[in-house]
Amino acid sequence: MQGVATGIGYGLKYQARCIADVKADKEHTSFLAGTLSLKEENEVHLIRLSPTGTELICEGLFYHPNEIWDLASCPFNPRVFSTVFASGESCGAAIWEIPEAYGQSNSPQLEQLISLNDSTSKIKCVLWWPSGKHDQLISIEEENLFLWNLDSSAKTAKIIARESVGMLHNLSGGAWDPHDQNTVAGTCDSSVKFWDLRTMKKTNSIDHAHVRNVDFNPKKQFILVTAEDESGIHIWDLRMPKVSVRSFPGHAHWTWMVQYNPAYNDLILSSGTDSAVNLWMAAAVTGGDSNNSVADLSTQYVDPLIHSYSDYEDSVYGLAWSSREPWIFASLSYDGRVVVESVKSYFSRK
Q1: What percent of the chain has pLDDT over 70?
Q2: pTM of this prediction?
Q3: Which label site among 27, 67, 316, 324 has the fewest CB atoms less than 10 Å from its CB?
Q4: 104: Cβ–Cβ under 8 A, 6 or more apart, which residues?
């Protein structure tokens, strides 16, 4: 089903790729978005959906020293987030804190709490502990996987484990398993590889072509989804990793990102360089139960593609479901346009 312009828009000043839900904000539906300007001073925008749900409000605008290539919100502190950044040939990662009185200053400065720059190759992303408060996080580089222990009071981070994937492979991203917090997945060239964080040894592998992004199903153990450049979207069961459970056609060009909904079983978003965001219902084809999930969607939609949002003018690199209102998501296209949509009209809760 093709979509018309229905979302609520917000414009960043510069080009951008990264948007994240502020998971720890229990009072507002909030997102953080970071820009990617080569020549100008970059910015992090704290954006909130108004109480009426009719407009997006900039609650805070903060200067960031470099181009932002990855951004993730702390799951237990709404003012803390991480970025991966680049300046010319150099790159790094850091954890930042938004100043407590940010609404009272014209030019509030982010405080860099911790640097994650003990890197030997190009850093790709930072993964926070999947839920709740914890002092560990993961950084993924092209050639290495690091497990860090954070000391927020001392504003330091220490590497407690490291695994090298070798020069024959290049990691590009990953996801932390919410069901088994000793397991992390990394996208690696033409495969997805899995490590046990207790031993930092590889435990499993999905060998497939051109994996761009991966996300675990938060409601079903062993199930994950991958976005792939040309072959679309694939759902996998880690107990049977050789063949995907189901494949969707994906996007007209590269399928760039894919995300499971945090609350509703088998509801998936994908975005691509064809300037579109697609909403999928995987239960229609995977046979999964829909308890605490989307009511009757599996019978309403034989076609797993529920809706396609096409009111974009550039590639859509950023996606973020709201954890506070899981029927709401935000998308970010490369031209700096944020769009917030509601999928509530497509389902009702049991």
Answers
A1: 88
A2: 0.90
A3: 27
A4: none
